[in-house]
Amino acid sequence: MEDYKFLFKIVLVGNAGVGKTCLVRRFTQGLFPPGQGATIGVDFMIKTVEVEGEKIKLQIWDTAGQERFRSITQSYYRSAHALILVYDISCQPTFDCLPDWLREIQEYANSKVLKILVGNKTDRDDREIPTQIGEEFAKQHDMYFLETSAKEAENVERLFYEIAAELIGQARSKDGSAAAAAAAAAHRQSEGSGVGSSIGLASLSAKAAQSNCCGGGVSNGSSTSQGHAG
Amino acid sequence: MSDELPEAFDLVVMGTGFTESCIAAAASRIGKTVLHLDKNEYYGGDSWGSFSLDALCSLLEKEVSESSALRNGSYTWHNVAAVDWDTDAPAVWTREAILAKSRRFNLDLCPRVLYAAGELVQLLIRSNICRYAEFRAVDHVCMNNNGEILSVPCSRSDVFNTKILTMVEKRLLMKFLMACNDYGEDKCNEDSLAFRGRSFVEYLQAQRVTEKIASCVMQSIAMCGPNSTFEEGMQRTQRFLSSLGRYGNTPFLFPMYGCGELPQCFCRLCAVFGGIYCLKRSVDAVSMDSQSQELLVSCEGKTLRAKHLVSGPGQVPINPVTPMRPNISRGLFISCSPLGNEEINKGGGGVNLLRLLADGGTREAIVIQLSHYSGACPEGLYIFHITTPAQSEDPIADLAPFTSQIFQNISQIVFSSHFTLYSPQSVEANALPLSIHCTSGPIYEIDYDAAISEAHRIFKELYPNEEFLPRAPDPEEIVIDGEDPSALNEHSLPEDLRAQLHDMELNSTENQ
After folding, report:
1. Domain boundaries, chain A
2. What is the pLDDT of residues A142-159, one digit of tens each?
């Protein structure tokens, strides 16, 4: 069994082509994928990080290309602990769409979700959005802000480590609350436990597929339980 | 990246209802190029979605056309006196206070519960789609015993602890359930020979069970009617028993945030395997290219080519329009207090299931009570979904024999709504080109067996030799953009994955 104390679900949104998948892959695999194709086959990626002496499992979800025609499923946003909204600093239209994304986030995500605005592609020399503009937008909408380059690996680690640190802080300060319980769901059997708990079927699938089960995996963790949306 | 749609697809799917989404996911999963459209701006097609309270109200007000699935809609607000519940909820739920929380509701047009070992749960696990959904174990399966709503004992310990049965009754019920459980293993046992071809009620009577046990079994466990055969009753009882003890106290699950999440889970899988999604896009016409035998789908000024087309009811303009008939009568109520006593609503209310009978057991309705634990309504409020096969075009009249059984004492209902879900009259298969398949919309059932079997049937017609929704790989196993699997070698893996790989190798050597 893997040993981790918290499991956090992080989802990425933003226009097609802003580099969401590149950010995820740079962070989880340490590589920058060549080619510009839409995201195919990527569901979510997992990386365990250590922050403040705690092992934390980050489950990072990509849009699966559904953002192309603004058709992201609501269920994508459910039970996310953090939400990264990405734009391309060299592409004004991706910045102009941010209010639309915020509306969608407001509609479907938990109102207490941690929101981070990320201006990606700082390696580009045809910048269209000055850092300050991004910063101001983030401030206005109560979001954290960071500029990154998935290509140059700039600020990518920092982005995810800061999210992890912030989420741990939240979980600890709300001691005993639903959020803390949810985050610590990792090893708990959700079956038959407390009144407010929900169930991920995967815990059963792990049992069912014991023969080809490989030492943990996501199976146990995916039952993040949140009593209700904020 | 271009925002233009590609021009040719293996499969175009119209409508994001449950069945259509299931087929889209299955096709995409085996590598077919799929375009999935819906004329609505939300997922779920015309009958399978979940809605905020505002959105539901506007759906109910919407003008009806000959292809509408939702008809005869109406809703009413009621004045409610002060409420005394130990929650953070306002003391008085006014219409304004409730509408202010509109987005916290996920109101299903077509709510269902799932058997914990049923077809859908098995499919979700087998295909790995379960990672997109969370569930709430149904807290109580209830019965209406002379106007009193009681929790039906499900598990062995429930039977021993229940206060609604006497000691003798407990023994009888256990004996009966054990017999049902063993039934089928021995095809020649006395009962199965003696009762073959007779009714389940006769069998129950022969077991000399008391009236209370009989109604327990008929109403809630076997969920049978007076005409159900012995075999049917036994099968249904077994279905109930085999789903026990998996999650929670009852054999049932309810999807967190409503049943509208389920089609979306299938859509997510479809997208992960390359399916393209466009909501709010309708198809204007479909024609056949006589040379290539491909379908030409004209969609907002553009013509797409498709080898096959699957359409949900009312999504594609196929002439002549198939007439629609009333299929399911629905009542949807919001209340300040739950049904039944404190015992079955511990901690602020249970997610409970209640099956009601009327007309001497020949008619039935399913009531699903949702508290905020389901993620489908704000704390302090409760949703009652009532569903019955449509008898007429008047959902209020259809539901009256059932609502009168449970709402006689409740003055706490703040919002009541009724509507009918229509389905196309049986689709004439031979009236359509072979490459067009139409789904039939929801039918009245517990769980999703019929919907899955329809999706499975259509999939097999499209791709006879392919597997239906095989297991999707876990993230650890995914190889991206056709990279050589060996490129993802041990050294490029993060530490935890490396450890897992190590474990896997260890396991496989052990197994050999």
Report:
1. 6-173
2. 999 999 999 999 999 999
pLDDT band at B432 (very low <50, low <70, confident <90, very high): confident
Tell me if B494 and A47 make a contact (CB, 8 A cut-off): yes
> Which tokens is A211 given?
């023969």
Question: How does DSSP assign B53-84, residue by residue?
Answer: HHHHHHHHHSPP-TT-SEEEEEEEE-------
> Please, which residues have CB within 8 angstroms of residue A223's CB and are 6 or more apart in sequence?
A185, A190, A198, A199, A200, A202, A203, B134
Share of chain B above pLDDT 90, in %: 62
pLDDT tens digit sequence for B268-277: 999 999 999 9
Mean per-residue pLDDT of chain B: 87
> Computed over its alpha carbons, how large is the radius of gyration of chain B?
25
Q: Tokens 């893997």 belong to which residue?
A: A2
Q: Which of residues 13-32 of A touch B (CB under 8 A)?
A: 16-17, 25, 28-31
pLDDT in tens, B342-353: 889 988 888 999
Both tokens of A79, joined, read 């039970």
Cα A17 off chain centre by: 17
Closest CA to A224 of A111, A133, A110: A110
**Domain A6-173, CATH number (from 3.40.50.300, 3.40.50.1000, 3.40.50.1820, 3.30.565.10):** 3.40.50.300
Q: Which of residues 382-441 of B touch A (CB under 8 A)?
A: none
pLDDT for residue B428 is more than 70: no
Strand order in the sheet with A6-13: A44-51, A54-61, A6-13, A82-88, A114-120, A144-147
* CATH 3.50.50.60 fits domain B8-46+261-322+427-462: yes
Overall CATH class of domain B156-242: mainly alpha
In chain A, how many H helices and how many E strands?
8, 6
Contact criterion met (CB below 8 Å) for B143 and B216: yes
Give the contacts of B98 (CB within 8 A, at least 6 positions apart).
B53, B334, B381, B414, B415
Question: ipTM more than 0.90?
Answer: no
Of the residues B18, B136, B155, B268, the best mutation for testing chain A's interface (the one with the most A CB atoms within 10 Å of its CB) is: B268
Structure tokens at B425: 């009259």
Fold of the domain spanning B56-105+134-139+324-424:
Guanine Nucleotide Dissociation Inhibitor; domain 2 (3.30.519)
Of B438, B205, B278, give the one whose Cα is nearest residue A70. B278
Contacts of B379 in chain A (CB under 8 A): 228
pLDDT per residue as tens digits for the range A39-52:
566 688 889 999 88
Interface contact A36-B1, CB threshold 8 A: yes
Q: Could you tell me if A133 lies within 8 Å of chain B, comparing CB atoms?
A: no
What SS3 class is residue B265?
Answer: helix
